[in-house]
Every structure is written in C-alpha cells, then in structure tokens.
Amino acid sequence: MSRTDKETRLKDFIVESLTALAEGPGGNGSISMLVRSVDSPAARALSAALAELPLLPLDIRVILADTRIEDATLPSLRDNAGIEFRLLTDPRFGASHEQLVVGRTHVWIGDCLRRDPNKRDAFELYHKADPVARKCAAVSFENLWSRAKTLMPLKGAALAPEMIATGNASGFPWSHRQ
C-alpha cells in the first residue's frame, strides 16, 4: 500500500469515527495519538480529517517521537490550535507502535516508531466499536504520556482567535507585551 493510500484510508477511518462520535449520545470527545512525527501518515490523516469536518469540541493529545519535519511547506498537525503535544525522547520506546484512539471505541494501530513510514509493507490494525481495544490503547497511551515531555506549541498554533481578540497571552513562556 502506498503512503498516499494509507493516509486516505486512515483519514476515512478518522472521519467515520468522528462522525459516529458527533452523532452518539454524550460521546467522549477525545483523540489520543502516538506517532513517529508530524510527517507520519497517521498525523497527516488526522490533520486532513480535522480540516474536513466541522468544529467539534475535542480534547486532542499527541505524543511525538521525533520533531523533525521532512517538508515544512506542507500543512502539519502542529499547525492546528488546541492540540496538546508531548515529545517521547526515550529511545527504549522505539518499538512502540503508532496508535490513534478516537472517542470510546475506535482504535488504529500502525508500524513501530522507528520504522520508516514510506515502506510499502506497512503494519496496521483497525478496531471499530471495540471498547476492549480502546481500553488497552488508552492505558498504553497514558503510560507513555506520563513519560513524555511537554512540547511548546508552535507560535502560530498557539494564537487562538479568542486570545488575539482579548489580548490574553496566558500559557506563553514569554509575554507578547514588552
């Protein structure tokens, strides 16, 4: 499967998952993701899905294993405001698999963090409406989240429209007023 096909399939899975979440009764509006980098097909798919759907109240947390970007001209998941990022710097977790959890039951698991995402024989599992898979993935994510280091938002992503309108710069490591 080519990288483009993988991204398209993942984006469709995310859109389907978010649509089910929006239509469900009091659904858990959360997304957690563990990826190699923002260039990962899963990260690109999530970014594309978020751009395609109407705004939903979501709590999105992403763990990155690498902050390098192959092509800075392309839109990145880091360009989205409201996503909390952490960096997993411990190389012992290189064998961890990429994963995406959407809502209460939808889980995707992909290649390990040290594998080149451009390989055509990629590993991936899709779990739809599977609360057991979601629970296992959530426990794994929370353990890695606690070990990862907070990653400051990119300057552009940190400026939400309401922050600009009110002049509130809380959360920034520096003051915008000098």
Low-confidence stretches: 156-178
User: β content, as a range?
Assistant: 15-25%
Counting helices, strands and paired strands, the structural category is: alpha/beta
Helix content: 25-40%
What overall form do the CA principal axes indicate?
globular
Largest sheet: 7 strands, mixed
What does it look like?
This protein has about 180 residues and is α/β, with parallel strands linked by helices. The chain has helices spanning about 5-25, 40-50, 130-145, 155-160, 160-165, and strands at about 30-35, 60-65, 85, 95-100, 105-110, 125, 150. A seven-stranded mixed β-sheet has the order 6-5-4-1-2-3-7, with helices on both faces. β4 and β5 form a beta hairpin. α1 (about 5-25) packs across α2. The protein starts with a helix and ends in a 12-residue tail after the last helix.
Give a quick set of tags describing it.
178 residues; alpha/beta; 5 helices; 34% helix; 21% strand
Give a topology summary.
Layout (H helix, E strand, L loop, with lengths): L2 H21 L6 E6 L5 H12 L6 E6 L18 E5 L9 E6 L3 E7 L11 E4 L3 H17 L1 E3 L3 H4 L2 H6 L12
Parallel strand pairs: 1-2, 2-3
Antiparallel strand pairs: 1-4, 3-7, 4-5, 5-6
Helix pairs in contact: 1-2
At a glance:
This protein has helices spanning 3-23, 41-52, 131-147, 155-158, 161-166; strands spanning 30-35, 59-64, 83-87, 97-102, 106-112, 124-127, 149-151. With 178 residues, it is of the alpha/beta class.
